[in-house]
Amino acid sequence: MAELRNWQATSLLELRFISDAQISPNGEQIAFVETWIEETTSKSGTRKPDYRSAIMLIQADGGTPQRMTFSVSGRDSSPRWSPDGSKLAFISTRDAGVAQLFVLDLARGGEAQQLTSLGYGVAEINWRPDSQALAFISRGAKAKAQTHVESLRDEKIIERLPFKFDGVGYLQPEYAQIWLVELGQEPSQITDLAFDHADPAWSPDGSELAFITVSRAELEHTRQADMYLLNVAAGTSRCLTNALGPVYHPTWSPDGLAIAYIGHDQHTGNASNEALWCVSRAGGDAHLLSVGFEYGLENSVISDARIGRFPYRPYWRDNGIYCLATRAARTRAYRYSDGVMHELTPEDNPSISGYSQSLNKRTAFTAGTATQLEALYMGDADGSIHLLYDPNAALLASIQTIEPERFSYASFDGLAIEGWVIKPVGFTQGQQYPSLLYIHGGPHSAYGHNFMHEFQVLAAAGYGVIYTNPRGGTGYGQRFRSLVRQDFGGDDYRDLMAAADLAETWDWIDSKRMGVLGGSYGGYMTNWIISHTERFAAANTQRCISNLMSFFGTSDIGPYFGEDEFGGKPWADIDKFMERSPIRYVNSINTPLLILHSDEDHRCPVEQAEQLYTALKVLDKPVRFVRFPREGHELSRSGEPLHRIARIEYILDWFGHYLQGHELKPADQFRRSVAGEWQSSQ
Predict the structure, then answer these.
(1) In sequence order, what DSSP letters do the residues of 179-218 get, joined into one string?
(2) Does residue 2 surpass a pLDDT of 80?
(3) Contacts from 566-575 at CB under 8 Å and sequence distance 24+?
(4) What is the distance of C-alpha 53 from the center of its chain?
(5) Which of 10, 23, 206, 381 could form a disulfide with 364 if both were Cys (CB 3.0 to 4.6 A apart)?
């Protein structure tokens, strides 16, 4: 038997990612997206790895997937079956690099037909019930260039909030509208409200579209939205809800008389669990269906090994409404019927990331475990589950993957906290090892039963990896989720320190060689921890928050998130905001700190890292600041492959120096080594 190799940062280049599993209306076939990394050549001739993807098709009863799209460049995504099952629509960035709408006629075969050529591209495609037209979202065609003199004027005039969004950049003045394209005809815009539109969903009779938009200008910067109904023939729309909170994924009842959706009424602000609601097509108050259900209807379990879309729109069938919810570190399937949420998945089922359901209640879904990347599964109406396709099975069989060990502990106030530890590769009883306490983002998310490439790389490098779900995370009930609200750096800090206390009692942990790291909220907590204790030998903060005051005005979510999570507007209570800002305590930071941040991060803007780095440098504290160009908040999960590899290598280098005694690489040597790793892997 061949010796198993270890996970490396560059193992990312070998992974294949599947997403957006869409089962045909008759339940016989499944279309999905497969993404991989391959060499590309830029216009300047530079070779580098980049993502590619294609639409795949597999029989629901098993077999080998068939590749359906073969674009020379770009990525194909978002497969959507026509209601009669004869066609497959999808989105592709081939050729011009802008996402356009294409349709494959499966009966006739041949090349896909391109239906749109809009400058701002398309998103959220949805077939009309007669299979002869599609609705989609677009900002339309870009304005033609003006005269040479006028084109020199490139300033931005901003009159809306938000005016930027992570992963998108600065928003265009054009709003996202609903468009319609009849097969064989030119697309046309069918809405014109001065707000962004989303989530179009056809009524069963094809006469109306339910969609989501902000209802009033004063709410545009919040998550409060409304569902509208558009009479397509008349071009008129009417509001069905009253801006209780966020609204997602409208789903029609089979008889067309009501619409279910996912949302919440902000009873605990941003920390409220997503729930199942319903409103009549005729109008009236929306009412909560999932009364008393304690878990959010969302997939909130973190993984750095997913690429693509993972839809979780409910499906309304004659026996109830099917949906997903996260409970106890695992995303599971549920059916709402008779006023009750019935859990459908076995307790040890893989954690579901996304799904779709046929008319005969067969379900295609993607799911993973802590030692298996996302794979494609088939669920029959009788409740049986079958693994259909695992593109990484052979790779995983060749690499040493460590099974996380679950533990739980009581925090300072008796609250039960769940956690896991991955022991170092080659673990030997009686030896002591360095360890890393990894803190998740959110804060309303969770670690759990999903694969983490980075954790396996750290374990292969000789670290024990400890990760927990402190208060504020999802999957443990509404009260647990709301406990962190307006208390960042409070009891959540005590939860994490209790985890460190517990780890120090394990005989294999070297308490003098413990590190701490995290991203986003985890970056905030890392900053908070090292400004309040010196128990960790080194730290790494990623896409962090250091100053709650400036975060409010510079983050794309700053106004609604900051006001709710931090407790008001900063100018109304400056002391309150600064009391929980790590930058206020920077003089107390003595732990060597690696700062990783993306230049185009609009969620936690790079100025947060700049403030922290500048202060530490002025104070002559040990700090290194690494900035990633062209990247946003999602660098660790979907950034450029070389940047993702480099990010992990910087982490290994930093902790290798401070926890394992290795020499710290100079910046110029490090850049050469990362580039060399890519070249040598070819």
Answers:
(1) EEEETTS--EE----SS-EEEEEE-TTSSEEEEEE--SGG
(2) no
(3) 566/486, 566/488, 567/486, 574/549
(4) 18
(5) 23
* Alpha-carbon separation of residue 312 from 7, 289, 364 (angstroms): 31, 17, 12
In order of 82, 134, 206, 209, 614, the CA distances from 129 in angstroms are: 8, 9, 6, 11, 58
State both tokens at 83. Answer: 């209601």
Whether omega before 250 lies within 30 degrees of 0, making that bond cis, reads no
Positions annotated as catalytic residues are 520, 633
Pull the structure tokens for residue 518. 């995290």
How much is the average pLDDT of 18-40?
96
Pairing of strands 100-105, 113-114: antiparallel
- Phi (first) and psi of residue 75, to 5 degrees: -135, 140
Q: How far apart are CA 196 and CA 7, in angstroms?
A: 43
Q: Would you state the pLDDT for residue 223? A: 80
**How high is the pLDDT of residue 182?**
98
3-state secondary structure of 99: coil
Write the CB contacts of 154 (distance below 8 Å, at least 6 apart in sequence): none
Residue 497, token pair as written in the block: 């320190």
- The full 3-state SS of 336-393, as one line of letters, equals EECCEEEECCCCCCCEEEEEEECCCCCEEEEEEECCEEEEEEEECCCCCEEEEECCCH
Cβ atoms of 406 and 394 within 8 Å: the answer is: no
Q: For all residues of the chain together, what is the average pLDDT?
A: 94
Token digits of residue 661 = 């005694």
DSSP 583-618: GGGGGG--S-EEEEEETT-TTTTHHHHHHHHHHHHH
